[in-house]
Structure formats: structure tokens, C-alpha cells
Amino acid sequence: MIGVLLLGGISLLIYSIVRYYQYTARYPKGPWPLLFIGNLLEFDFKAQHNTFNKFGKEQKGIYTLFTPIPYIQITDWKLIKEAFVNKDQRVHRRERRTRVEGL
């Protein structure tokens, strides 16, 4: 009985890990996120601008931070113009984050 529960727990953990990294693969490349906590360990909360600048230089202008909600950061002016001017309808129809907007 314990063996079956242990096997089921390990299988569920492996399934969760595979699904999480399939989910993160849909977003632009960025620092490698950890399961459940995302990139919180790599984030400097006292100097957030330094963290954003470092990731922007490493990832060439666009990257995703998982905190654990995914946030796409665009730091290159050409990519910002393309996203908000040329492809504004895609950005306009994006999902709303009511928890963040209430802050």
C-alpha cells in the first residue's frame, strides 16, 4: 500500500514538473524558473532596476520573469514599438490581472 502511494506521489510530482516547464516554454526566453517559486531567488528586491537591466542585456531586449505569475518584460525600444504600435490588437486583447491592478 505504501509503495503504491509513493509511486503515485512520485508520478504526480514528475507530471507536475513536466507540465510546468511545458507551460513556461510558451513564453519568451528568460532566466530558468524554479518550480512553484519562479525566478524569485534571482530577483534583487532592493535594487529592482539592476535586476531588470541585467536580464534585459542577457536576453537581448525581451524576457519573461516568473514570480510565480509570468511577466513579460520588454527593454528594447524597437520591440516596444513593434508590440504596442504594429501589433496593438494582440496586446489590447490580453488577459487582465485584477489582483495586480488593485494595488
Automatic annotation (TrEMBL):
* UniProt entry keywords in alphabetical sequence: Monooxygenase, Oxidoreductase
Record InterPro entries: Cyt_P450_sf (IPR036396)
Question: Do the record's keywords include Cell membrane?
Answer: no
Q: Which GO terms describe its molecular function?
A: heme binding; iron ion binding; monooxygenase activity; oxidoreductase activity, acting on paired donors, with incorporation or reduction of molecular oxygen
Has the keyword Transit peptide been applied to this entry? no
Q: Which domain of life is it from?
A: Eukaryota
PANTHER family, alphabetized: CYTOCHROME P450 FAMILY
Would you tell me the protein name for this molecule?
A: Cytochrome P450
